[in-house]
């Protein structure tokens, strides 16, 4: 039986998902929670934005300032 996860547990799944695949159960649980919790949905969007920004910086670092 699945139970509703607390926001703290869901936040850990959001972070884990950025680095490794989730199990089917974890994906289902995360999707279910995000469908009901506006705060976690916003947090998930912010995690995704930070993840993309980090990768963009890694791919194209800012030039050094040699002044």
Describe what this molecule looks like in 3D:
It is built from three helices and no strands. By secondary structure, it is mainly α. The longest helix has 22 residues, at 38-59. The mean pLDDT is 85.
Number of strands: 0
Structural class: mainly alpha
Average pLDDT score: 85
Reading the helices and strands in chain order gives HHH
> How many separate helices?
3
Largest sheet: none
- Which ranges are low-confidence, i.e. pLDDT below 50, for 5 or more consecutive residues? none
Overall 3D shape: elongated
Structural descriptors:
67 residues, mainly alpha, 3 helices, elongated
Summarize the structure.
This protein has 67 residues and is an all-alpha fold. It has helices at residues 7-19, 24-36, 38-59. The N and C termini lie far apart (62 Å).
């Amino acid at each position: 039986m699945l139970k509703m996860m607390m926001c703290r547990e869901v936040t850990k799944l959001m972070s884990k998902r950025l680095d490794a695949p989730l199990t089917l159960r974890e994906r289902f649980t995360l999707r279910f929670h995000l469908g009901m919790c506006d705060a976690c949905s916003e947090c998930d969007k912010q995690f995704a934005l930070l993840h993309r920004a980090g990768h963009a910086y890694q791919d194209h670092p800012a030039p050094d300032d040699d002044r």
